[in-house]
């Protein structure tokens, strides 16, 4: 599990710290790359700008994507991920505090693998992160990378 990177796309420093703490407390020791806005997330995934030297074969095993992001909105990030052959099969879990039904519907229509509302209670959030890590990083079988034949 350690070699599977998680991309956390989160602009709120408190939510970032809370998520990192929940991952750590649940013994999810994967490397976590944090992107603080949608543009940075896309640059990381598409190996451009500040991430131009990153190995495009080393894509994250899981993307935890907030929706309300500066520069590029989370739904637009998801749209670009699904439109690009090198990223279209990546597992994307929307992790948001949005209670808007339209966000939920749009997220699934754009190809989100899962949609999780951040619980307000820390104990509930810890349990949600534990289950998320167990399912997406251990139990769930990832699709082959985009470069592999299907």
CATH class: Alpha Beta
Strand content: 5-15%
Helical coverage, percent range: 25-40%
- The CATH homologous superfamily name equals Response regulator
Strand order in space, largest sheet: 2-1-3-4-5
* SSE series: EHEHEHEHEH
How would you characterize the largest beta sheet?
Answer: 5 strands, parallel
Q: What fold name stands as the CATH topology? A: Rossmann fold
How many structural domains does the protein architecture include? 1
Mean pLDDT: 89
- Determine the oligomeric state from the structure: single chain
Distance between the terminal alpha carbons, to the nearest Å? Answer: 24 Å
Shape: globular
Low-confidence stretches: 146-150
Spatial extent as radius of gyration:
14 Å
Structural class given helices, strands, pairing?
A: alpha/beta
Q: Identify the CATH architecture.
A: 3-Layer(aba) Sandwich
Tally the helices: what do you get?
Answer: 5
């Amino acid at each position: 599990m350690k070699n599977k990177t998680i991309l956390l796309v989160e602009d709120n420093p408190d939510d970032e710290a809370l998520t990192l703490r929940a991952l750590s407390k649940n013994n999810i020791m994967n490397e976590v790359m944090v992107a603080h806005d949608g543009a940075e997330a896309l640059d990381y995934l598409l190996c451009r700008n500040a991430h131009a030297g990153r190995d495009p074969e080393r894509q994250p095993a899981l993307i935890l994507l907030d929706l309300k992001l500066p520069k590029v909105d989370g739904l637009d990030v998801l749209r670009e991920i699904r439109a690009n052959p090198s990223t279209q099969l990546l597992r994307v879990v929307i992790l948001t505090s949005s209670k808007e039904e339209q966000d939920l519907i749009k997220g699934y229509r754009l190809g989100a693998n899962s949609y999780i509302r951040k619980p307000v209670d820390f104990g509930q959030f810890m349990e949600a992160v534990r289950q998320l890590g167990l399912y997406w990083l251990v139990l769930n079988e990832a699709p082959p990378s985009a470069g592999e034949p299907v």
